[in-house]
Amino acid sequence: METRPTALVLGAGIMGLCTAWGLLREGFSVVVVDQAPPPNPRGSSVDHHRLIRHAYGAQAGYMRMVDAAYAAWDELWADLGEVLHVPTGVLAIGEADGDWLRESRAALRADGRAVTDLSAAEVTARFPYVSGEGLAGAFWSPEGGVLLAERIVAALAKHIVISGAVIETARAVRVDAAHATLVLEDGSRRRADALVVAAGPWIPRLLSGLGQRVTASQQVLVRLAPPPELAESWARAPMILDLDGGFYLVPPVAGTPLKIGDHSFSLTGDPDDPDRSADPREAELILDLARRRIPGLDGFRHLGATTCFYDVEPEERFVVEKISQRAWVMSGFSGHGFKFGAVLGRRLAEAIAKPELEAFIPAWAAGEEVMPA
Ligand SMILES: Cc1cc2nc3c(=O)[nH]c(=O)nc-3n(C[C@H](O)[C@H](O)[C@H](O)COP(=O)(O)OP(=O)(O)OC[C@H]3O[C@@H](n4cnc5c(N)ncnc54)[C@H](O)[C@@H]3O)c2cc1C
User: Fold this and answer.
1) Domain extent for 116
2) Has this prediction a pTM greater than 0.90?
């Protein structure tokens, strides 16, 4: 007979899997339910890469949480037996000395973190594949890198199963938070002592209350391969962030494609739509944002444009909250949650195991305050 406390996790994206990992470490018997076996390419977490960096505009809470995030990833790498992070550093740039650039620089400095201002000429001298033309501001921050997202999700799913969790492929049609129960499509029920709902962009459908706060948002991204003569320099390039209305660029590390996207929210789209191709005009708009900055971009091989979903909270604050005595929701990750998957999963699992920690989770996850050590 099972004597351990039991936990049920809906969603095998990075949030659900990391929470399952944390719950196993806290001694729970864990079942994860997902509509598709992980890694599910339609979930927000499954793509070649996700970025982790301290540059966070004025959101100093999230900037500081990145230290805890790195510590939690290190714990995960130790459990997985491999490091799925490639350090790149951050080149932050702006055509106007915009809010995000200015506030990131100020917050990093105020916290005593390494940050070097660069003139337009210094940007080009240091990173010859980036044009300094028209740059109003730039800085270099040595911390930050690429998390190999799809490989992390796949390895973590395997790891938790080896550690005793069950991952069940089934679609949940209803969440009965009061009874820590999921009702599945075939009418059967799964229940446990504790329930965590981490259903990514599908969440507004399952928890109608959250639909007022969180919106699924289809985002376009473009994958490219630099020409062979530039491949080596690009593979060693930093992430490039032009987040005052511009673009982000993920360098082609560890055999992945180079990726360009933007961070403006569409706030439309249906995560159940199997067609994840991008409108070519939208892909062209993304490329236009980067063209001026990356000379020769049109000579890069186009590997395809696709779409992926954010679950957007209006202030981009995470929602990790109790929805009943025995159930929690993890949502509102607004296009910046992956980097915090390991630390959010570990901390939420600790709070489920030790209720005296519960009260700290929502504000901390919303980027407002630091958790007690
Ligand atoms: C293009 C793009 C770029 C991004 N870049 C970054 C970045 O650089 N850095 C960063 O930190 N973050 C980034 N993010 C955000 C980050 O990827 C997400 O915040 C994170 O992956 C969310 O994980 P999740 O587990 O909440 O959701 P998901 O990964 O979507 O997982 C939810 C899971 O729940 C399952 N599910 C949903 N409903 C049901 C149901 N009814 N029954 C059964 N299963 C169900 C789904 O199948 C899915 O597997 C980016 C996101 C996108 C889309």
Assistant:
1) 90-142+215-312
2) yes
